[in-house]
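Table S2 (continued). Query chain:
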Amino acid sequence: MRAIPASFYSGDVDRVARDLIGATLLVDGVGGVIVETEAYDAADPASHSFVGRTARNAAMFGPVGHAYIYRIYGLHLCLNIVCGSPGSAVLIRAIEPLHGVERMQERRGAAMRVNQLCAGPGRLCSALGIDQRLDGASMALPPFALFERVEPVSIQTGPRIGITLAADRLRRFGAAGSPWLSRRFPIASPCTAV
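Corresponding output:
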């Protein structure tokens, strides 16, 4: 597998979100293939960066190719990858767990079904052992590793999940038909092969 080059993260946030589908994400060797993402930027009312730079969202205005990690609902952590223009990031919503599945089950609970281990951003962070200390960390350095897609994939596009502002924007991307998604796409969702 080839590491994703630093130049990749300079691209438009929607393009990066789409192109991350099929890439492999590892944290200390634990992870799998990214199957679902969402795009956010500073002009998007649903984005944390819409209000400008704050202590919470500072990583979104930092170097591209770095992690932006935040807590949602006071409970769950979410992993984003900073990219494109300042204030832009891609939320990693779900992966297909392939590496270190036993470790993921230890973290999430042995009774957790494998298809639910990393189906959703909070579950994903828990399963991969991601914590707030990784906010601002480079995705090119340990504990992170990101590798290019090795197989073609059909990608569906749809509205993002769990937001009320700009909810109609088609900025959620996912591997078509994947059983590892956090939520299925509507049947009529646009689909493109890449």
